[in-house]
TrEMBL record:
Organism: Centropus unirufus
Alphabetic keyword roster: Membrane, Transmembrane, Transmembrane helix
Coiled coil ranges: none
Lineage: Eukaryota, Metazoa, Chordata, Craniata, Vertebrata
Main location, first listed in the record: membrane
Stored Pfam families: TMEM33_Pom33 (PF03661)
Gene of this entry: Tmem33
InterPro entries, alphabetized: PER33/POM33_regulator, TMEM33/Pom33
Protein name: TMM33 protein
Membrane topology, from the record: Multi-pass membrane protein
Annotated transmembrane regions: 12-33, 80-106, 150-174
């Protein structure tokens, strides 16, 4: 009755579990490398479906207007719908599947707990303990996802020069990264950029750091800072 009363949430729960399943079979290619590539695409397509359903839930009344598009781009679900479309037809990159896998795992765990509570307050204690441990590490997981999002930017450039990526991919991914940086719900990408800048500045200011390395890093920091969007 709980599942039927929350059909949209249940559909997203099933698609997230399927995303976790496909992502796991890509990261751990138990069925062979050829099959792993197909699981990579399935995971991203399932994530695109979940993101589209979540976006519909957040903005139920679709309008073909500039204002609606601007509002949609503020939603994290729209960001990851774009993310899935960027990588679904590209060369499989293990780093790109981790954000999809971990976000799906976190959201699926939250809804699984609701399903267990609807069934009985004491049902499946072992599974409940696993879900609690996952929830207690949520902040670290979100930081890891943000780190993946950041380092995928140079990875897309490397893929372009190695012949495994398209010319448009780095530019579209840069747009995705600016959306994540400006996210209202998830500040971890912005926080990680700040933390990485502090760490790099601390290292290059040491006397043992060569002058040319210091200048190169400072120029890179200045360039990346100019590319960062303004956050209200």
């Amino acid at each position: 009755q709980f599942l039927m009363a929350n059909k949209l949430d249940t559909a997203m729960w099933i698609s997230r579990l399927f995303t976790v399943y496909c992502s796991a079979l890509f990261v751990l290619p138990l069925l062979g490398l050829h099959e792993a590539a197909s699981f990579y695409q399935r995971a991203l397509l399932a994530n695109a479906l979940t993101s589209a359903l979540r976006l519909h839930q957040r903005l139920p009344h679709f309008q073909l207007s500039r204002a609606f598009l601007a509002q949609a781009l503020l939603e994290d679900s729209c960001h990851y719908l774009l993310y899935s479309l960027i990588f679904v037809n590209s060369y499989p990159v293990t780093m790109s599947i981790f954000p999809v896998l971990l976000f799906s795992l976190l959201h699926a765990a939250t809804y699984t707990k609701k399903v267990l509570d609807a069934r009985s307050s004491n049902s499946l204690p072992l599974l409940r303990n696993l879900l609690e441990k996952l929830n207690s590490n949520q902040q670290n997981i979100l930081k890891f996802i943000a780190c993946n999002e950041i380092f995928l930017m140079p990875a897309t450039v490397f893929m372009l020069f190695s012949g495994q990526g398209s010319l448009l991919q780095p530019f579209i991914y840069y747009r995705f990264l600016t959306l994540r940086y400006s996210s209202r719900r998830n500040p971890y990408c912005r926080t990680l950029f700040t933390e990485l800048r502090i760490v790099v500045e601390h290292l290059i200011m040491k006397p043992s750091c060569p002058v040319f390395v210091r200048r190169l890093c400072l120029s890179s920091i200045s360039f990346i800072s100019r590319l960062a969007p303004t956050v209200a």
